[in-house]
Integrase
Amino acid sequence: MALTIRQINTTKPSTKIISLSDGLGLELRIWPDGRRGWRLRYTRPNGKRNMTSLGIYPEVSLAEAREKRADIRRQLSQGIDPVEQKQSDKRQQQYTTQNTFKVLAMEWHAAMVPRWKKSSKRANDSKRVLEMYVFPKVGDRAIETILPLEWLEMLRGLEDAGKFEQRRRLHAFCRDIYRFAIITGRASYNPLTDLNTALKPYKKSSFDHIPQEELPELVRNIEAYDKSPMVRVGLKLLLLTAVRPGELRKAAWAEFDLKAAVWKIPAERMKMGKAHQVPLPTQAIDALRYLHTLTGPFKLLFPGRNDPRKPLSDAAFGMALKRMGYEGRHVPHGTRHVVATGLKELGYPREWIELQLSHKLPGIEGVYTHAQHMAPDQRPAMMQFWADYLEKIGTRLE
C-alpha cells in the first residue's frame, strides 16, 4: 500500500530501524534517534540489485520522493544506471568548474612566467589583455563550450576599434592557452588556429619618425625646448643612446658608471629580458651630469612630479614633441628609427646597430652570437661619432 502523510507522522521511532514502504522500491526509514530518510531499491541494467538515498524527510517530501523514484525508473527503462549517471553528472560539474577558460588561462600564465626570463612586461601584458577582453565574456565558461564564432567576434571587435596590435596579442595568447589545455588533456580542439583566414591582414607599422633631412631641425628644436629642462635632457639622451623611452624614463642613477662611460640596464627592465650595456658618448655624460644637478637626490633620473618614487609620465616626452610641432610625424620611440637609419647611412655594421638597439640578431646568428661589441673601437666609438655628428649638424648637446 502507498504511504500517507498521516502514517509517516504518526509512526514513532523504535529500538530498531523501521521501514515504511510506498511501493515500487521506495521506502522511508526511521532510525532509533528519530532521523528519517528515503531509500529506493532497484535493479541495475546489469541485473544487480542496488539501493540509493533520495534525501532526508521532511526536507524531501513524500511527493518529491515519488518524483525522484519516477525519474530513476524512467532512466532504468532507457538502460541508464542512475548511480553511474549521478557520478557522471558530478564529474561533468567538476570538469566544468575546473576547466573554465579563466582557470586554464591562469594555469598557463603561471607556467609561462618562468620562461619569460624575469621580464614582467610580457607577464603583465598577457594577464591585462585577458582580463580586459576575454574573462568578462567567456572566462567562466568551460573551454570546450566556447565556439569559434565567439572568438571571431571578439577579435573582429578589436579590429573594428582599430586595435590591431591588441588583436594580434590576444589571438596569440588565447591560441597558446588552448594548446596548453590540449597538452594537459582538457581540450581536444584549438579554434584559434585557423581564425587568421577570417581576420583582416595586419602588418605592424613602424613608429612615426622624421626623415634624415629633418634631423638637424629636430636637434635644434630639442636644444631650444624650454618648458622642462628634465624633459629636454631626456629627449637628448634618446638621440644619443637609441634606448627605448620606457628604459630611459625608468632609469636609476645606480645603473650609470660615468667614469667608465657605460649604462648597464638590468634584465628585468629590458623588453628581451636580457641585460643591456649602453656606451655613453661624452655629450651624454655631460647631459647626465647636468641632469644630476636636478634629480640627483632621487633614485630615478626622471622622477614623477607627484611621486618621485615613480618615473616620469610616459606621455611627457611625446607631449614635448607635439609642442615642437611633431604631432603625427615623430614620436619618442621613433627616435630609434632615426638613429638606426643614420648609423646605417654612416656605414656602421648591422650587428653593432642591432645590439645598440638591444635587438636580437635573426636566425642562427642570433643563437650563436653573444658578442656585445663594447670594445673602445666598436659600439662606443660608433656612438661617439654619432654624437659628434649630431653636434655638427645641429647644435652642441650639453
Q: What stands out?
A: Residues 212-393 form a domain with the hpI Integrase; Chain A fold (CATH 1.10.443.10). Confidence is low (pLDDT under 50) at residues 364-369.
